[in-house]
Write a structure and sequence with these properties.
heterodimer; A: 117 residues; mainly beta; seven-stranded mixed sheet; four-stranded antiparallel sheet; 11 strands; 50% strand; globular; B: 110 residues; six-stranded mixed sheet; 60% strand
Amino acid sequence: GAVVSQHPSRVICKSGTSVKIECRSLDFQATTMFWYRQFPKKSLMLMATSNEGSKATYEQGVEKDKFLINHASLTLSTLTVTSAHPEDSSFYICSARDQGRTNYGYTFGSGTRLTVV
Amino acid sequence: KQEVTQIPAALSVPEGENLVLNCSFTDSAIYNLQWFRQDPGKGLTSLLLIQSSQREQTSGRLNASLDKSSGRSTLYIAASQPGDSATYLCAVIDDYKLSFGAGTTVTVRA
């Protein structure tokens, strides 16, 4: 089936620094990828839609200058948390769908646990 | 705006018992519905995708039904095992956008 790889799985950074998270589709091309944030015991919240070769679309309330998204190729999207603060600590997950195998639904990465100290 | 609710929030059963997990949604004009499993600290693993024209999907011990008119989906897990312990999430798919419930955390006791 469709495979999405996400790295790193865990990262600890100091306040004020930036952190980059990568999301790769391994066996398919993804013109669109999705970034979610998950709070403890809460459902996933869509942050933004990453579009290959164009600007990302952000959901209401998500700061685009804080959460920079780049989708430079058909298999890679990156999320950069800029000037991170403790309140940015969370679990971030990316997702994509293989347009050639839509009966598989959406595939998710393994997630990144970000801790800002 | 699509609202997705999963009841119960948590469930504990002895091994061998059948599991019934419920998902309800407010807007019946959906494309598809997908069930996922999430282990602690991990990403989501897809279990079943039900397309809007389908009423159910089956995979091994798992069966998911979909009733769009009433805004409900149910995931059945037969003969539960300790390895089934996880959080189960349903996601309603409108075009490309997924709306998630908060999940049902299942514990299967050996």
